[in-house]
Amino acid sequence: MRLILLGPPGVGKGTQASAIVKKYDIPHISTGDIFRANIKEGTELGTKAKEYMDKGLLVPDELVVSIVKDRLTKEDCEKGFLLDGFPRTINQAETLDKELTKMGIKLDKVVNIQASKEILIERAVGRRICKKCGASYHITFNPPKVENICDIDGGELFQRDDDTHETVSTRIEVYENQTQPLIDYYEKKDIILNVDGTKPIDKVYETIVEALTNR
Ligand code: AP5
Ligand code: ZN
Asked: Binding of Zn(2+): at which residues (predicted)?
C-alpha cells in the first residue's frame, strides 16, 4: 500500500497515520517528525528547518525533497509507505511523481482529511506529545489516564513550540495558500479519498480502512 495523508495542521494526520501503518505494516514517513528529530539532535538541517517551523512557514522545497527521495529508496519502502505531511506544494508533488515513475511504482490513494478552522485550532492547541515515544494526546479529546503522563511508557508530555494559537493560525493560512491546491492536483489523477475529519478518532480510522479495503 502506497499512501499519502493530506490535510491541514491539526486535522489528525499523525493520529491516523500511527494506526494505518500498524494495520498495513508499512513505514510512516512524516517530514515534520524528521525535522523535529533533526532539531533535537542539533543537526544543520534541524537548525535551518527550525527557523521556518517556529514561524509556521514551510521549510523550503530543496531541503524537504532530498530527504524524502532518500527515505523512499530504503529497503523497508519496498512493501509500501505512508507519507504524512509530504507533499505540501505543487512542486513537491511533481517531484514525487517523477521519482515514483523512475522507481516504476504508483500511489494507491491520497487520503484527504478535512475539518473546519475552529476544530483545527482546538485540536492543535490542546495537543500534548510524549517526550519518550512521541505518542500524541489531546487534553480533552484523547487525554492520558494520568495528567501529563504517557499511558505507554510513563514519559512526560509536552506541547510543540508551533502549537500556539498564533502559529497554528499562520500554519492554516500557509496550508490554504500552498497545500490546498494539491487536492485538485490529485483529484485530477482520480486517486483522492475525501474523509470527514470532524468525527471521533476511531470513526475516522474506520472510514479510511473501509475505503482502502474497497478501493
Ligand atoms: P507537521 O509536523 O507535518 O505538522 P502539520 O501538518 O501542521 O500537522 P500536525 O502534526 O500539526 O497535525 P496532524 O494533522 O498530524 O494532527 P494530529 O494527529 O497530531 O509539520 C510541522 C512543520 O514542519 C510545518 O509547519 C513546516 O514548517 C514543516 N514541514 C513539514 N513537512 C513539510 C513539507 N513537506 N514541506 C515544507 N515544510 C514542511 O492531531 C492533532 C490533535 O488532535 C492531537 O492532540 C490529537 O489527539 C487530536 N485529534 C486527532 N484526531 C482527532 C479526532 N478525530 N477527534 C478529536 N481529536 C483528534
Ligand atoms: Zn510515551
From this structure: 130, 133, 150, 153
